[in-house]
Amino acid sequence: MLAQAACEKNDGPFAHFSLTEGDRETLHIASWLHDCGKVTTPEFVVDKATKLETIYDRIHEIRMRFEVLKRDAEISAYQEALYKFPAETINMDELQKVIIQKCSILDEEFNFIAACNVGDEFMSPDKVERLNSIAERRWLRTIDDSLGISYPELLRRKDQQKTKLPVFENLISDKPEHIFPRVGRDVIDTENNPWGFKISSPENLYNRGELYNLSIARGTLTNEERYKINEHIIQTIKMLSALPFPKHLSRVTEIAGGHHEKMDGTGYPYRLSQQEMSIEARIMAIADIFEALTAVDRPYKKGRIQN
Predict the structure, then answer these.
(1) Same domain, 122 and 196
(2) Of 5, 121, 235, 259, whose CA is between 20 and 30 Å from 185?
């Protein structure tokens, strides 16, 4: 529709723009294939709806730790009362008030953590400060956390010393095993790669630290995950470049591979300016943004209503 509107303009910057039947077929195929590189992007990254979500939402682990702290608060209140007074003289009503007060503080703190996880609001410095303060609460772990885990995770822990149990740990933490190093084919030389991509990759492939993720300022994606999503355009270009398109479809890769460029040169993966982008590639970029804003089938956001 955008291409047809541009063709119909008799004045302005699109006055001399037109499409042959071959050009229309090229744009049509480029439209269908523009995101084919997303087959290489993990679904749990593309559809990450909350900050702690991976294949599942790790907010459930933190909720369980809060449950442990609430049980501990209740037990310690009873133990303290029994230590101070004979059992028959304990005022149960007063004791219950103390327990309810302690648990209500924990409930309110978890509600704050849960709100941080959703990522609807900007994480201002004061919110990050409160998050860090809550994270410093301690809970007692008595079970070996290396039991029953996968071989790759065991490898990430191989240089860690065995923790002596029982051990008090922070309620929310960033641990060494949360780091997934960038190795092998995931490493791209940003200065000298054969494709000419101008894109800087983060040091790590993933960082699943709980504090690190909950502290994301806007949205739900870490820098590592955002790069992983952006990387799909690199894979799209590589895949389409390997296909034996007939001569009249030779521009499919260029048009499909340019839909994340920006006219001010801050897009990716080539950082092209307006003058370096074809009109078809700019049309693709606009259409892609429109679809991203209005789509209602994305778990990490609500689609904007089309007027």
Answers:
(1) no
(2) 259
> Measuring CA to CA, how many Å separate 75 from each of 117, 165, 167, 173?
29, 21, 19, 25
pLDDT value at residue 307: 55
Q: Domain boundary residue among 176, 197, 221?
A: 176
Please state the domain count of the chain.
2
Q: Which of 107, 141, 176 is the last residue of a domain?
A: 176
State pLDDT tens for residues 211-240: 999 999 999 999 999 999 999 999 999 999
Q: Are both 143 and 126 inside the same structural domain?
A: yes
Please give the Cα distance from 37 to 234 (Å, whole number).
7
Question: Residue 160: which domain range?
Answer: 59-176
Question: Across the chain, what does the average pLDDT equal?
Answer: 92
Q: How many C-beta atoms lie closer than 10 Å to residue 53's C-beta? A: 19
Largest CA-CA distance found in the chain, in angstroms, rounded: 95
Tell me whether strands 204-207 and 167-170 are parallel, antiparallel or unpaired: unpaired
Structure-derived torsion over alpha carbons of residues 113, 115, 119, 125, reported in degrees to the nearest 10: -60
b/e code 112-125 from CB counts within 10 Å (16+ = b): ebeebbebeeebee
Residue 244 and residue 159 in one domain:
no
Query: What is residue 200's predicted lDDT score, i.e. its pLDDT?
Result: 83
Distances (CA, A) of 55 to 25, 42, 44, 183: 38, 9, 6, 22
Instruction: Please check whether residue 70 lies inside any domain of the structure.
Output: yes
pTM equals 0.86
- φ and ψ of 55, to 5 deg: -75, -25
Q: How many CA atoms lie within 13 A of 121 on its CB side?
A: 11
